[in-house]
Protein: PLP-dependent aminotransferase family protein
Organism: Candidatus Pantoea deserta
Amino acid sequence: MTRYQRLAMHLAQRIEQGLYRSGEKLPSVRSLSVEHGVSISTVQQAYHMLEEKQLILPQPRSGYFVAPRKAAPPVPALTRPVQRPVEITQWESVLDLLDSRQEANTLQLGSGMPSLAQPTLKPLWKMLSRQAQKQETQLLGYDNLYGVVGLREQIARLAIDSGCQLSLEDIVVTTGCHEALSVSIRAVCEPGDIIAVESPSFHGIMQTLRGFGIRAIEIPTDSVTGISLEALELAFEQWPIKAVMVVPNCNNPLGFIMPDARKQALLTLAQRFDVAIIEDDVYGELAWDYPRPATLKSMDLDGRVLLCSSFSKTIAPGLRIGWVAPGRYRDRVLHMKYISTGSSNTLGQHALAEFIRQGHYQPHLRRMRQFYQRNYDSFSCWVRHYFPCGICVSRPQGGFMMWIELPEAFDAVRLNRELLDSHIQIAVGSLFSASGKYRNCLRLSFAITPDERVEQALATVGKAVERAIAACASEHSPPSMQHDVLLAK
């Protein structure tokens, strides 16, 4: 990225954040040149770039002014899924999403992959190399079923930030968070049982339930406060629900952080109906505000919360290192782990434990939080600018996902097929529903660096959305209105 592009992005973020308001005069070319230590021509190029994006307007002999902006889109309303147990579908769509990752020239705007290009990961490469150079046979052998002691000690220490008081005996290392969730589900459920889930919810959870023959009941979820406790209570009263699965911190895909009072109310409700809670906290450490939010597990007094997490989103998914604090279900979780994968990646566990112990993890986390928050500022600015009116957009409080809700008649599956011809991939909303709901929604990831290629891709998506909405309106309008439209043309 050139200097003028960086300066333009910096100014665009200031405009998006409201530091420069609509109609306000921007600093002069000369003052910006001095402030940022760049040439006058660099500032002029940056201003020209912002002018092309219609973010600013030049006025002869007066300078540059912030252009009138669209109002920020509203957040999605409380979701309204079918509130009865259903068999889970959508596997073919999930497989298409996974297959698209292999296309090197496709821009992955819907992927759950974190940024792996940060310099704060360099010490981890050294740790992996040093562990390999030791050539100790234990690094290539099986470790115990719980996981490497040194890593479990570090995980217990990190958990203090979320309010948890854990010992290494409370923790079981798994092959990523996906296995942590998988063994937790099997520890508390049998085939044919029912689990309550947020709606929308992570597609990996849905497919895990499908594989185990477990039905899901989707609970209405608010994009700001989380799962509806009122709807959940009604579901508990009507159905023999064995567990509730939630992502209360930096939710995927909505991005909210559930308020502490509602977390406590959820725990109280689960105690009243004697239901287990499977808590996915894989994004919790990526909350933009510090201290990071508390987990449900930190409020759990009777061991009913199975806390699942991993280093896949905070460091790298290729490590395949996650963990679960299963509480009262520890013996069952250990058995489920034994019959699935046995012990986990020994070499990676030792390297990761050393990476954390030497103090590299927290600086890396701080960098990633800042990186994703800056990216969100750029992405939300571009979505507001390039997408048509009449949409709803979530306002995440951490992580790197945003959820966009389009008019009801919109078909994001058709949109995704169209975008693949332009080598752009999104995650369609129906992946995040047990029954294929949210076909009019999509999930975008802002983990990738927001450069010119990404902006152009979002402009392409925005234009495709606008065309599709216009086509929907035409298809659903009365024949007389369509005739009037043709005459007007």
